[in-house]
Amino acid sequence: MKEEVTKRKTPGMLAGGIALAIIVASIVVSIKLQFGTQMSVFVGAVVAVLVAMVMKTKWSEIQEEALAAIAKCGVPLLILTLVGILVGIWLIGGTLPTLIYYGLSFISPRAVVPLTFILCALTSVFTGTSYGSIATMGLAMFGIGVNLGIPGTLMAGAVVSGSYFGDKMSPMSDTTNVAPAMSGTDLYSHIHSMLYTTVPATLVALILYVVLGLRYSGTAFDSSTIELMKSTLSANYNLHIICLVPLVLVLVLAACKVPSVLAMGIVPYQLPGSLKLAEETLKELEDYDVVMWEKHGVFAKGLDVMDAFDQIDVLSKSAKIYIDSKCMGFEPDGMSQEEMAEMTKAFNLPR
């Protein structure tokens, strides 16, 4: 019996445009029906899969491409998780409250609008989150501006635009990490390319906020609201200039183009307990605190046992996030029969 071979169709310009329009329309309709953002995107993904199957694309190919795309998001997913933890730590530790406290010290009626834009931008650059910046620095500055008689719409614009500037340019932002991961470039090249459009837009916005802010320079200035906010911050958080060190560290590491998630050393497979494994591990430890042994385990160094354990614990959680991002579709190579035989002989393992 002759085997029938189904030839995969390559869509032309018209077919591709129609397919894209159908996918976009499905997402828009889902949003209009109030399915929610996540469910609307899922509907769009389902429609995209159906379109691909109509084009005679095999399910195995669709699955392979989907898993490859998810794998590229492994580091951004890790960054998103770590940034959430980081913002919470900075809030409890006093870093963000200290930034807000000293930012409030520079408030004046004529400068409050542009200062709101600048402070929200700085906060989002440090934290990598626009929503978090709006909910912290943005909320404080919005309340002050409204109490000074500045229209809420103008203050909201300064808060949102400043927060989104920092979120777009921050090396800790999830979206800023996802874009280069999916397009195949590195993080800082992506940020550098965005400067050509972001910096001019930022300067124009800042000039407009300065001009608009001057219209309210004659507003009566009541410092009681600001003093109340500062006293509330002082009573509930540890405020000290030292608390700003993590923010400075973020800027320094970004200037040095250090990756948002530090890498680890990888030692190719060597016989466990062998001299070669020790030599390769020591070589990697010159640059890294954590070394992963291929098909064997992991080694970490630290100031003490608990410090080393913390390094491994972070690695373990990172590995879990990465594996989860593969949606259980990734099949590890595993150890070869020769490698298993070598280990069985070296350690007298049961066959």
Strand numbers in spatial order across the main sheet: 1-2-3
Distance between the termini: 45 Å
Number of strands: 3
Order of helices and strands: HHHHHHHHHHHHEHEEHH
Largest sheet: 3 strands, mixed
Q: How many helical elements?
A: 15
Which residues sit in consecutive blocks of at least 5 with pLDDT less than 50? 1-5
Radius of gyration: 27 Å
Helical percent range? 55-70%
Description:
With 351 residues, the chain is mainly α. 68% of the residues lie in helices and 3% in strands. The chain has helices at residues 13-32, 37-54, 59-72, 74-93, 95-104, 112-127, 130-147, 152-169, 174-183, 187-214, 224-236, 245-255, 275-285, 305-325, 337-347, and strands spanning 265-267, 290-293, 297-300. A hairpin with a 3-residue loop joins strand 2 (290-293) and strand 3 (297-300). The radius of gyration is 27 Å and the shape is flat. Mean pLDDT is 76; it is low at 1-5.
Summarize the structure in short:
Helices cover 68% and strands 3% of the residues.
Brief descriptors of the model:
mainly alpha; 3-stranded mixed sheet; disordered N terminus
